[in-house]
Fold this protein.
Amino acid sequence: MHGRIRQNLFSGELAAATGVTVRTLQHYDNIGLLPTSGRTAGGRRYYTKEDMLCLEQIIFYKSLGFSLQEIRDKVIKRPTTSQIEQILHEQEVELYRKIEDAHASIALIKAFRTALAAGNSPSWQSLTRFIRTLRGSNLLDWGDNIFSDSLIEILGKHFTHEVAFDFYHTWREIALKAMTLAKSGVAPDDPAAQELAEDWWEIVQEVTTGDDERIHAFALIQEDRASWPEGDRDLMDASQSFIDLSLKHYIKSRPNDSKKYSSLKRKYDKS
């Protein structure tokens, strides 16, 4: 083998390279999840480059908490180049879902702390239910099929993927906070609610920038809430009233913002 790179790896070598145990590889072989490509005359299992691609898929999905049966349905054995591209795309989507789940959980913890600081305590049961629902929704579920072609064109002109994700995270954090404060009995004029209203007002101004086309686009999105992903629709339904009441108190105490709000609301209502 001088000057040559061996293409196949024995079980111990593959285990050392990937961080799994030899026992795990043997188990995957025995259940047919990752059958060994062959054995030497001495009975040693060996694996090919294609087997390594298969194992990479197994390790990835296992790290995300999928069961071996679920992984079995996802893994593509001996993938072609085009299938590898599809595998990478699906893995990217799964990672984005995990990121969204983490954002929702962190936002809910922050919201709960805010409610406790205000002297109130929301129901753990209701919050847990919302987290379960939210984990069925994320920005990737807002596919093109939800929007009309004209709305997609408008949104595409004003938002990059990065801006869309930032806005989505901020919106969900504020909405979760509003829902939590509302369920814990915090009044709309409470300092915690007014801080929320300020955050909401800032994101509204940042997103619309007073531009009629942007305002019209968001009005259309609101009108078609029935087509939203379930978790986000439920979150908006549960938080909208508290946000509106809190913002009403917030705007009243700020004459300059009141003028901006009135102008924005007129444009929004006309849309």
Remarks:
- The two ends are 73 Å apart (CA to CA).
- The chain has a mean pLDDT of 80.
- Strands lie at 9-10, 38-39, 45-47.
- The first helix runs from residue 11 to 18.
